[in-house]
Amino acid sequence: MDLIQIPSVEDLFWYVAQNVVGRLNFVDCVIYQADDDQTTLTQVAAWGEKNPFGRSIINPLVIPFGHGITGKVAQTRKAIIVDDLLESQNYIPDTQPARSEICVPLVFRGRVVGVIDSEHPEPSAFGEAELEILTTVAALAGAKLELLAEAQRSQQRYRDLLVSHDRLTEETSIRKALEAKLFEARRLESIGKLTGRFAHEFNNLLTVILGNLELVEAAATDPGSAEFVAEAKTAAERGARLMRDMLAFAQRTRLEPVAVDLNEIITKLCDTRTADPAPKVELILADDPWRIMADRKAIVSALLNLIENAHDATPSDGKIMIRTENLTHTLSDTGPLAASLPPGRYVRLTVADTGVGIPHDRLPQIFDPFYTSKPVGAGTGLGLSIVQGFTQQSGGTVTVTSEPGCGSSFQLTFPAIP
Ligand SMILES: Nc1ncnc2c1ncn2[C@@H]1O[C@H](COP(=O)(O)OP(=O)(O)OP(=O)(O)O)[C@@H](O)[C@H]1O
Ligand SMILES: [Mg+2]
Which keywords has UniProt assigned to this entry (predicted)? Predict the structure, then answer.
């Protein structure tokens, strides 16, 4: 391994100790590392007597700055050569007493990070040449420390960048989802406002037309003209119904919420529809459904529209299923319901069928007012937008799942009365 490839500060210290002894022919080498406070030195790597078992230091010495030869070098940042340790009062003998010693500081960014120390059993073993060698080693080690610090900094920067990139991606997708929701809400709101104003005006006109037609009807003596008047009245009444639907979609109809039992409404409605042709309608009703606050007429008309839609989409050998369920959803729940409703008790009404299903790319449009796939005159495309408006006005949500060729399922979830 060469200096460039050394991956950590610890490896660097061991590399220096090993090479000072191995390649540079010193008898031993001990590296001391300074603490962050610049008060003590601790032996961290050694080659020779101090390290008989590879990379581990037996009883690493801790020397305060200013003490002994190493401590003095750390404090003064000046190299020291001692020719005869027997005459030096600064000598702190380690495992093996020696006669001469050389010690150079390891300086990095103006701070002492440690010292490189070598001892010799003979006196006067170190001179200018050794000093130059160790000073060069210290300078190289200092340069390597700088590289390591830079590598660490760029690794950290890279990690920070990854974290902020992840956060940004997450925030962007949350924001996009919120924007889409807001846009959808605004879009429907503005269509609703426009439709509401228009329907209101038009309704007034139709009332005048119908009123006058009734007067004409009463005054008409000629049976031929009575037929024309009746036809005009039927058309005006159809128009009035359409306007009522538009007002309902625009949420201009005043709802009268009362406590209702969905099972009761469904059973009654299905009893009156028993004469209906196939497909078969199956009821799966909750044993004891919680009551909800909703407008009776609005629920009936929502149910009728859902059943009619299912009916139109399902072949006569298919099946329509109406189900009620009590649901409790808690803070820890995830999923589509948790995303749109606060935790609490809910009653879910499902109308599902085994019909043609809805193409995936059409799903986002089916709640749009006037969206219909039915032939002209067969549907106004207001049914589902009224269902959605009414459910939302009642504090609930509508969700739909559909698989082309397999069928569709509409779920209306209403808050239960506490
Ligand atoms: N159960 C279903 N299966 C397949 N497609 C459906 C189903 N329910 C709704 N759709 C699709 O959604 C469209 C919109 O439905 P919606 O009830 O709003 O209007 P409509 O039924 O076309 O007209 P209207 O209800 O005003 O008579 C339908 O035309 C149909 O394409
Ligand atoms: Mg419909």
Answer: Phosphoprotein
